[in-house]
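step: validate -> pass
step: tokenize input -> pass
step: predict -> running
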Amino acid sequence: MELPEALAWAQARTHAVLITLRRDGRAQSSDVVYGVVDGAFHVSLTADRAKTANMKRDPRVIFHLTEPSSWSYLSFDATVELSPVCAAPDDPTVDQLADLFRIVAGHEHEDWDEFRAAMVADRRLLARVVPTSVTGQAH
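step: predict -> pass
step: emit ->
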């Protein structure tokens, strides 16, 4: 399967497993929600999580999607680009996280001021997961 076809299949979904590498080389998996933006997966993270530390140290990841009802799965080899941590309610990272909310939720937030304050308080950042290849099958 080619990347454009795989990304089109992925765009119809919002849940995946992000697999990062621990310091000792073992895999660590995390369930995440995502949106597809300009050929990459966007994921909201917090600065203090192990997966964030893992990606800062080694940006190579696997982004795995599955659809058990149709025996479909795709595993994307990818690299990650991490945004700065949210510093103020009006900074560019918060804007990107607001866009991600709209993609994943499919609607506007009922209180954007509250959302923006929460992104700063949670020390959130955006991971841009850029796929380089894909394996699997999608039915």
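step: describe -> The first helix runs from residue 3 to 11.
step: cleanup -> pass
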